[in-house]
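Hey, weird one. I pasted the Sodium/proline symporter sequence into the form twice and got a warning about non-standard characters only the second time. First submission, copied straight from the form history:
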Amino acid sequence: MDIFTIISLSLYFIVMLGIGLYSFKQSSSDVEGYMLGGRNLSPKVTALSAGASDMSGWMLMGIPGAMYVSGLSSAWIAIGLVIGAFLNYLWVAPRLRIYTELAKNAITIPDYFENRFNDTSHSLRILSSIVIVIFFTLYTSSGVVAGGKLFESSFGLSYEIGLYATAGVVVAYTLLGGFMAVSMTDFVQGCIMFISLILVPVVVLFDLDGFSGVANQLNTLDGNYLNFFENASNGQTMSLIGIISLLSWGLGYFGQPHIIVRFMAIRSVKEIKVARRIGITWMVVSIIGALATGLVGLAYITKTQSTLNDPETIFIYLSQILFHPLITGFLLGAILAAIMSTISSQLLVTSSSLTGDFYQAFLRKDASQKELVIAGRVSVVAVALVAIYLAYDRDSTILDLVSNAWAGFGAAFGPVILFSLFWKRMTKLSALLGMLFGAVTVLIWIYAPLEIDGQSLSSWIYEIVPGFIVSSITIVVISLRTTQSDQSISSTFDKVTQSVKSL
């Protein structure tokens, strides 16, 4: 690896660790300060940390790779994600920020579910915590694997060193500064991703003589790469079910704990509108840059008659070929930023669930704030070690399960979050069964040996669609057949509604 690239990456790691140390000195010693930053995030940090924790390595590798293979027909997923993110800011963010504070100052999603329905049986807390711990531990493992492979393929280091380097830096700043460190590093990482996803496609465009040059190169290939309604890889016209399946990725936003927890931490509900404008602008520009990287990358490969074995490495390839090694280090740092920002968020959400929803709820109800913060830090290390252990098996089927975690969270938590925020009539039993049936439907859709039109269920339509529908129907039917006896629930709901109306 070139010395300039090493210098650039070293500076990146130093900055991340420095932010962790700064956050450690600035953060409060109570559990709310460690897990939610004392509900004191600014709009810009809220927006970019939510975006960076959402857009993992798939933003710089997955989307460009899909565009490289299939052309503009892959853009439907990006459209669905932007719509979903916008509605998440519009519908969920203000109500959840108010509700979690009024509902006994809930600091985790399981905490919110239990307080929202006054669940003294703790069944909602237990089920939602199990879902979070299992899926996010696996999710974190996949991010560590991505980091290991990046170090191996780009930096010439061993896969194992890559695992420990990626996880080690993330654990260090998460352990030190908690939520504030994660959010601040996410902000910096979001800026790096933003710049990189503009810089790479623009430089390639100039090299290919603009849009006309790109179009000319793509037109020499078999398949229509510039058609929204045709998959260029097989020449087939996109079906309505196929388009709905891609757009439905946006449904997942309503149930992603590592994203919506940012809404709980913003310092004022009135600043959510500013955060929404920043966040959606960042997302639109970044996704367009990722899509463009795939298309212009394909045009560049075609013009130079080069060979690219893995389409998902097109961003890495262009970074190494077209830029000075110092800039290459910065661009490769963008991929690390995408990976690390998601890992850190997942580590903290899992840690907060282990600490608040298991340790404090069932083992040490009278634990001091200092003890809970220590428990949170121990949980971060424990989850990271498990993730590293799982990541040693690069061919593990765990990664197949993690690829469906978005659908699992979206179907299990999404409808419950939405109905709990907007429908007073919703009951505890409906929340529990809606969460359970949504998750089970996703698993059946993925693993059941059933077919529709000769395709597996998950190939026919993305599993979040049936999972979301089943969960929503369950919530409505069960709520209409059961009653909510606790009047304080209705009173809190009315206060939230009035607060939102007054904004």
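That's the output from the first submission. The warning seems to come from a hidden character in my clipboard, not from the data itself. Residues 3-394 form a domain with the Sodium/glucose cotransporter fold (CATH 1.20.1730.10).
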